[in-house]
Amino acid sequence: MTENAITGVWPCLRYRDAPAALDFLTGVLGFIQAARYGEGDRIDHAEIRWPAGGGVMLGSEKPGDDMVPVAVGTVYLVVPGEPEITALYERVQAAGARIVRPLERPDYGGAEFALADPEGVVWSVGIYAGE
Prior knowledge:
By secondary structure, the protein is an alpha/beta fold.
């Protein structure tokens, strides 16, 4: 396999209140905003980068466009290790986010938890980075 500097897979999400979702994802989860296009309370396209790599595209719902359902999805985020996942879990709790699976250390190793953002998209967080 060759190293590739581009992000080749982009989960895409639509929100009823995309500015609020963007604020939650950057302010609570720790994404970094890389792009935002649109005027006022409408986001036509935004890109957020996860510090460990990868990114998500999001935007405001578009009436008549059902290609991307609104507020539906599950995204898995990788954090580097135990201190980082514990710190993120505490930050998410302090922000009052809805925890859908508390921080746990399963028998098969690692650590993980899951939360739902204000519109119900589930964000799973773990230290398992894949094979």
